[in-house]
């Protein structure tokens, strides 16, 4: 495995790692799913984490056995409706939505001259970072509209290292989604999974929540 001294950069997921926004995504999708008669389950909620807007809609329709019921135009309209729901939920969001320990962790990384990039599938990530007051940390963002493949494909995390001019093995990827951990592993980076260890069993390092995410704990896990 990677040595701690080898690490030069950190590639972050956003929703569910930096901020509590995965809850808002889930709420907005649930509104739409139930309107379409698709039963909401924890399993569906977990499967939606990390994947793109259209992939999410496809998974919801497939779960309900209605994947062939709607035209592309109707599907576009559903995706737009979900995004409107999501943006409504985001309206009053501020720095209080930053997950525990993340503000200190980012500051610590900057002070220790690590490089940072963002590997979020969300087209709303620039807005979210602005509202959280964290945009200054992420000058290196991957534009998800330029990707050929979504998570779990390695493309987004590979690009996260590339934009920093680093080798994958010099980077740590941080994720709360199974598809995201798979993307990090495929890119050849060290994967840190935040959340349920059973779901994120493929991660190199597991932390139960963001408050455990510190340089010291990563070093400890690698020693
Ligand atoms: C992230 C979230 C997903 C979300 C996706 C697309 O990966 O984890 O829940 O569906 O981004 O977000 P967007 O804001 O573009 O709809
Ligand atoms: Mg996430």
Defining traits:
isomerase; binds magnesium ion; alpha/beta; DNA polymerase, domain 1; 2 domains; 223 residues; binds 6-O-phosphono-alpha-D-glucopyranose; HAD-like_sf; five-stranded parallel beta sheet; EC 5.4.2.6; Rossmann fold
Which class of secondary structure composition applies to the elements? alpha/beta
Distance from N terminus to C terminus (CA atoms, Å) equals: 10 Å
**Helix and strand pattern:** EHHHHHEHHEHEEH
Number of DSSP strands? 5
Uncertain stretches? none
Task: Output the CATH class name of the largest domain.
Answer: Alpha Beta
Number of domains: 2
Query: Which of globular, elongated, flat, extended, rod-shaped describes the shape?
Result: globular
For the record, the CATH architecture of the largest domain stands as 3-Layer(aba) Sandwich
- The CATH topology of the largest domain turns out to be Rossmann fold
Describe the structure.
The chain is α/β, with parallel strands linked by helices. The chain is 43% helix and 9% strand. It is built from nine helices and five strands. A five-stranded parallel sheet has the order 2-1-3-4-5, with helices on both faces. Strand 3 (171-175), helix 8 (178-187) and strand 4 (190-194) form a beta-alpha-beta unit. Helix 1 packs across helix 4 (72-90). The protein binds 6-O-phosphono-alpha-D-glucopyranose and magnesium ion. Magnesium ion is lined by residues 13, 15-17, 22, 49-50, 176-177, 180. Residues 13, 15-17, 22, 49-50, 176-177, 180 line the site of magnesium ion.
